[in-house]
Amino acid sequence: MTTEQQVLDRIERARRRAPRVREERVTLAHGAGGKATQTLVEDVFVGAFGNPALEPLDDGATLDLGASRMVLTTDSFVVSPLFFPGGDIGDLAVNGTVNDLAVSGARPLYLSAGFILEEGFPMDDLRRVTASMAAAARRAGVAVVTGDTKVVQHGKGDGCYITTTGVGVLERPEAFGAARVRPGDAVLVSGPIGEHGVTVMLARGELDLAADLVSDTAPLDGVVAALLDAVPGGVRMLRDATRGGVATVLNEVARAAGVSITVDEAAVPVRAAVTGACELLGIDPLYVACEGRFVAIVAGDRAEEALAALRGHPLGEDAALVGTVDGGPSGLVLLKTAFGGTRIADLLVGDPLPRIC
Amino acid sequence: MCLGIPGEIVELLPDRGDLATVEVAGVRRPISTGLLGPEGVRPGDWVLVHVGFAMSKIDEAEAAATLALLEGLGRAYHDELDALAESDIT
Amino acid sequence: MRFVDEYRDADKARALSARITALCEPGRRYKFMEVCGGHTHTIYKHGVEDHLPEGVELVHGPGCPVCVIPMGRVDDAIAIAREPDVIMTSFGDTMRVPGGTGSFFDAKAEGADIRMVYSPLDALRIARENPGRRVVFMAIGFETTAPSTAMTVLRAAAEGIVNFSVFCNHVTIIPAIKAILDSPDLRLDGFLGPGHVSTVIGCRPYEFISSHYGRPLVCAGFEPLDLLQSVYMLMRQLDEGRCEVENQYARVVPWEGNPRALEAIGRTMELRPHFEWRGLGFISHSALRLREAYAVHDAERVFDLPGVRVADPKACQCGEVLKGVIKPWECKVFGTACTPETPIGTCMVSSEGACAAYYNYGRFTRDRVQEATLA
What is the pTM of this model? Predict the structure, then answer.
């Protein structure tokens, strides 16, 4: 007669097995940033391309180029609708790429921008998007130095898709990454979560909900630099919380670092309107995309300094200490609920909010 | 599925007698009040919202009574804990 | 959030927990069943069981209306969705329920126009805005949701929106509870009544449970404190030798229910002679269909449905889980062949299903984590 513990152990063993994609076709779940995406990346992409620079599966790849160290990242933007309160696809394209470089510890320098335009897409909309990109690039101190344009037949695209590549230079001596994370470390988030995802969802107009919310899209290089300057050697890793939200990032970190993470639900900053929309729709804000927030894992004894550094910057003024890294079962993210109970916050299956970024 | 959320009626929609705007923590949505009795709702009333319909008016007196009960239990519990801490049988 | 946050207070939870513990007879185990997926979800999402003493156990019953949809009905819905001019609309939860040949999600990947909506009124709006397409709403849910479907059908009829129809899979809770009570496998001490179903049917329909079956029932709200308080009220009944129906959720549930909601259901729908519940088999007078007068809005009359009865996969033990006979982890395929990514049965698909709730939220308690950490 198997005991509950035996069943749970069997599950843990099953979860550790090499991921295999079983579906015959791509589904929206594969783009959600959760379990299906992880399986797809590990089975199909790492399976085909596997190499040391790729395998950490960080936001950017760290590469040696002669005497310099650079970070290379790529991103695609398929958000629908293209224009929403607080920004548009152009803002996301620049900020999103800058942020991947910033959380890798690099100073963002150059972007490329590839456009896939649908026949019939209004030229004025294209000018709006590129104007946003130019403004965002100026704000972040980067230049769009090369690009590409393709046009597909009407019905074969959806207005405008943008793919970017970002290049930054690693000037700081310290290394970041999952390998540096250890039990006792503190988990911080840079600000209120879920604003981008909920804003975009409401902007689609399908759910007939209205709220005073704007996307949180922003370039994070400045606030990241402020943190790294204030706590040299104390930051273990950084990751921006995009598709899949903070909970997905924490699961990725816990898995990559082989640790468990415990989060204090009451400590996670969430705006009332995000809570309200999520309650109405039955979604958990922890899994909703942000586009201007990041998670920082820092040494436990430097947590207060790190928090102060974040709060001193406009983009980090609502930063909070939300949890700790523990030595529990590897890859586990636990949530202490405001009610005083405990539950798991696992990777999501399926996609609560498709085409969010 | 049984997702029912308390929301506040903020506006009655003029051209449709059975529609009102409900607000939940700053998020607004038009909902149908067709399932509520003839006395209807007024701005400021709280209702239980489920898939775009107001199912029931929230009885604020009952809500307060439930909380008061829980509060009372809580107080009694803390009193007991205090009494336990203070008691000394040595 | 008002009327929400107050009922999530940890201090009050500890107080209730102490009271419940004080009422436990030494050596006695208590088993209470909840019959609402929303309750299952709350229990796991907030960790309510962490506040219950060892001897008090919560059992999950057939309260998830998505979980009890037979595979054949899902296949019927997908057949409708595959018609080239159809826009199928459904709540988010139904999207991943596996039929015999796949889910809505899979059908969407293959090109079917399937859209998630928050309300049946949104589906009606889509129909209004797309007069050249046939728009179908996949109606699921207990008596909580049936009135919304009914009101939408009435509105469609009044406005003459003939391209809108409903695929009605509404089920009723009382026959399911009765099936549980009549089942020889189960020894229950009481029930946590489905709070939102009760806003429609009231508390009177449960009286047979205490008067004929001798089990107390407390109609419970959905915040974690509501559930704890309801357990406390059940324990008090047992302690005081009472056996009756009580209403913990009085701020929302009127004892007599909602007459307008019941009237809307009565006007547009009638009970089917019998309906198959996944895991529970055929139960008579347990499900609703649209009346003849609304035939133009009844997807079952508008479309030709395969209507094939699909047997559950042999390995699937959803039925036993739904009846509370086994716990999720006791199912032979739980967590291995049947996971949230690769669900075999509906208990693992819906966010309100007991297996999904346990797998996604409850696999590790504080104690187990501490044990694992010390190991």
Answer: 0.87
